[in-house]
Design brief:
mainly alpha; Growth Hormone, Chain: A; two-stranded antiparallel sheet; 21 helices; globular
Length: 551
């Protein structure tokens, strides 16, 4: 691969993945960049839907083989070929996803800023899809450690790089609508499971035989599909020329002191109290939301039990196996509906933050969230499925909105020069929340069961109040965020020096650079259709399956 640099004859041609190769030319339409981001995020977002594989994989050796060897420990489960896997052992892949996502984003966020989104998207595609293929080999050979290594570790690295690849790019393309930009950058991640989970079910049913549950074949097909889409997204990325601004737009003289036009260097961002306060804001909001996602299905089943199938007098313990299977299918629709609120909230709340400000948006998240979490036990006791589902739908919209708004919040506080890398480091909060949220929620539930609390609304009352308490702490952290003192910002000379390479590669006029604001021309509509049609299919499938909740 060619590397940009000087030779005896002058400048060499940049490599096809190099940052200098993807500087937009006059006439480029900036609305082509969001579909590129969505093409990657809709693929890696399947991480949320991986639980669709747990039950089939727990029967991978066939019904005649024990569900799991009675005395098998976790180390034994990693290497056994004679026993089926436990769902709990498979579930560690989910934890690895988000731990590796946060760690890889933090470690390679600076590299992304230097190398550009195309190279990061390319590596993300190789890791995510390659990891799924390694996991397929793990299923074929019945080696759980290969599943952990492939999907969890290698795939998790791809998640991190793919997740942050569009953030700084879209913020720079849409300085006039920064919140909307981050909403478009991130919303696809919430919709990935909405497409991937039903697609996985269709594929597994197609490949299933008397001797195979069809998972490894599904992994292979999905890896190929995802690779095509992610490569399309990576090669669709463009970055604006140095000094570019949308045609006719000038930075407003904002009275909002929370929005800076200056820039903080990556090496200094984490030294500020503001970084750690925003870290706490994200961690606490996500911890509470992940807790709900993790227990959404059992919660609906145990709270409403027989009322879900027209038998309101039956508690969860009184249902037979067939009836529990019916309500499990209904609960799956509930989980899908929450995914719809998740993706919708990413765009809605991030766009709203452009109007009311990032700090006020998070203030709304925490105040509304505290009220809804505290009211959830009452709604459960009332037996109102509609109000209960609506409450948790709003909670999940704010969970998704928190992800989408946080990059704009960082750009407001630290500037845009290193926002992608700073965002990468901040995602260690997600990695932390991915452990804290499920562990706290599961521990409370198990403690309640051990204390003799029956399955029902009372089982989750304490959990809801503790999650509300997390949001109270988040509210306090958000209230403490203030603009940065002058000492943290780079000088104009430092910023110019950092941008010199890009400026040299694209010497020319400042301002719009012949690009302008763009619009939905034929090319843009085609690009949006490529990602929009699968997304609409996922929405339709989700709505169809969720309607059964209400009979």
């Amino acid at each position: 691969m060619a590397v940009a640099g000087t030779t005896a004859g002058g400048f060499s041609e940049p490599g096809i993945l190099d940052r200098e190769r993807i500087i937009a030319k006059p006439g480029f339409n900036r609305w082509l960049v969001p579909p590129a981001a969505l093409a990657i995020h809709l693929c890696i977002g399947m991480a949320y839907g991986f639980s669709v594989f747990w039950l089939p994989l727990s029967r991978a050796l066939g019904a005649d083989t024990p569900a799991a060897c009675a005395e098998m420990n976790l180390i034994g489960a990693l290497f056994t070929t004679a026993c089926n896997w436990r769902v709990a052992d498979l579930g560690w892949i989910y934890t690895l996803f988000f731990v590796l996502l946060g760690c890889s984003a933090a470690i390679w966020g600076g590299w992304l800023e230097r190398s550009g989104p195309r190279k990061a998207g390319f590596v993300a595609a190789c890791c995510w899809c390659g990891g799924i293929l390694v996991a397929a080999l793990g299923v074929m050979t019945h080696q759980l450690w290969l599943m952990w290594l492939g999907a969890g570790v290698i795939g998790g690295i791809g998640l991190g790089l793919g997740y942050i690849s569009p953030v700084s790019t879209l913020i720079k393309w849409f300085p006039d609508r920064r919140g909307m930009a981050t909403g478009m950058a991130i919303m696809g991640f919430g919709g990935g499971a909405m497409i991937g989970a039903p697609l996985a079910n269709l594929l597994m049913n197609n490949f299933k035989t008397d001797v195979s549950v069809g998972v490894w074949q599904t992994f292979v097909v999905m890896a190929i599909i995802y690779f095509v889409f992610m490569m399309g997204g990576a090669f669709g990325y463009r970055i604006p020329p140095a000094g570019w601004r949308p045609e006719g737009w000038t930075p407003p003289v904002s009275k909002n002191t929370m929005i800076t036009m200056r820039h903080v260097h990556l090496k200094n961002a984490h030294k500020t109290p503001q970084f750690w306060l925003i870290w706490a804001v994200l961690c606490l909001n996500v911890s509470a939301g992940i807790g709900v996602i993790g227990m959404a299905s059992p919660m609906l089943q145990e709270i409403f039990a027989g009322s879900l199938i027209g038998l309101p007098d039956l508690t969860f313990a009184q249902l037979d196996a067939g009836q529990k299977g019916q309500i499990a299918a209904i609960a799956a629709g509930f989980a899908g509906l929450l995914s719809l609120f998740n993706i919708g909230g990413r765009f809605f709340w991030a766009s709203l933050s452009d109007k009311i400000g990032r700090k006020n948006t998070y203030f709304a998240f925490f105040v509304i969230g505290i009220i809804l979490y505290a009211a959830a036990p009452t709604l459960a006791d009332m037996g109102s499925k509609a109000l209960f589902v609506l409450a948790f739908g709003i909670i999940l919209s704010m969970y998704g909105g928190g992800f989408a708004t946080i990059p704009a919040y960082l750009a407001d506080i630290f500037g845009t020069q290193f926002v992608g890398a700073i965002h990468g480091r901040l995602l260690t909060a997600w990695a932390t929340a991915g452990i804290v949220g499920p562990v706290v929620v599961n521990y409370i539930r198990e403690a309640q069961l051990a204390a003799g609390v029956p399955a029902g609304p009372a089982l989750y009352t304490g959990t809801m109040y503790i999650l509300a308490g997390m949001l109270v702490l988040g509210l306090i952290a958000n209230a403490l965020i203030r603009p940065l003192p002058e000492k943290w910002f780079m000088s104009d000379e430092e910023v110019a020096s950092l941008q010199a390479k890009t400026a040299a590669a694209n010497a020319g006029p400042t301002g719009s650079s012949g690009i302008g604001k763009g619009g939905f021309d034929g090319k843009a509509l085609a690009a949006w259709a490529v990602v929009g049609i699968p997304l609409l299919w996922g929405v339709w499938v989700t709505l169809r399956s969720s309607l059964v909740i209400f009979g």
